[in-house]
UniProtKB/TrEMBL annotation:
Signal peptide: none annotated. It comes from the Bacteria. Residues 2-232 form the ABC transporter domain. This is Putative ABC transporter ATP-binding protein YxlF.
């Protein structure tokens, strides 16, 4: 569902993403990891159509995001690291606005909104103005908006920032459920314990290149560390520069 083929993105002389090739299959929850400056944000911006690569192709569900970004966006839900809402809209009005933007049929919009209110436990505040929301409330509403049109691909950037433990549990369960129901989930996060808990596969990115692709257990085997946490493995892998590691990827 997600394919990046020999993707490079530069900012002037700086190479932010260097010849990245990556395939993420239907129903996979993929965690994209890396230190600050690794190129994760640039990659997400290319996946969501906010940036175009200087070379290579980005495909969402077989649609080239550079050629037909509107169609690629219809297949995608996006949760940014900083939630943005319209302060003078209620949560319900915001969800209705997003549903209309995605072209959801009017007779389906009310049920879609009701479903997301239930999924994210928004009942207590969904009819209040967004300007009164806490960060956690905003994050939950943004998640609901990203899923309102039932996208085949969900891209989330630092989903746990600012969430209380109950909201974190809700989001983790939601991401796993979306993957189990067939959606492709691409999650960028610094919260390594969350990646270790819920991801099917991880990618470790450093200096614009892939350092590792595979499962946490495969990373343990590569580093000969049978019982280390992902945090310990990540710190060891990224503590020095090295050649990119390629592993078999699902078609």
């Amino acid at each position: 569902m997600i394919e990046l083929e020999n993707v490079t993105r530069r900012y002037g002389a700086k190479v932010a993403v260097d010849n990245l090739s990556l395939k993420i299959g239907e129903g996979e929850l993929f965690a994209f990891l890396g230190p600050n400056g690794a190129g994760k944000t640039t990659t997400i911006k290319m996946l969501t159509g906010l940036l175009r690569p200087n070379s290579g192709a980005v495909r969402i569900g077989g649609v080239d995001a550079g050629v037909d970004p509107c169609q690629a966006n219809r297949l995608t839900g996006y949760v940014p690291d900083q939630p943005f809402l319209y302060d003078k809209l209620t949560g319900r009005e915001f969800l209705a606005f997003i549903a209309e933007m995605y072209g959801l049929e009017q007779d389906k919009t009310a049920q879609a909104i009701a479903d997301q209110i239930e999924n994210f436990e928004l009942h207590a505040f969904v009819d209040h103005l967004a300007e009164s929301y806490s960060h956690g409330m905003k994050q939950r509403l943004v998640f609901a908006a990203a899923l309102i049109h039932r996208p085949k691909v969900l891209i989330v950037d630092e989903p746990m920032v600012g969430l209380d433990p109950r909201s974190m549990r809700l989001v983790k369960d939601l991401l796993r459920r979306e993957a189990e129901q067939g959606a492709t989930v691409f999650m960028s996060t610094h919260t390594l314990s969350v990646a270790e808990e819920i991801a099917d596969r991880i990618g470790v990115f450093q200096l614009g290149k892939v350092r590792f692709l595979g499962t946490v257990q495969e990373l343990r085997s590569q580093l000969a560390r049978d019982d280390n946490s992902l945090e310990q493995l990540f710190l060891e892998l990224t503590s020095h520069e090295g050649d990119a590691v390629s592993t078999a990827q699902p078609e």
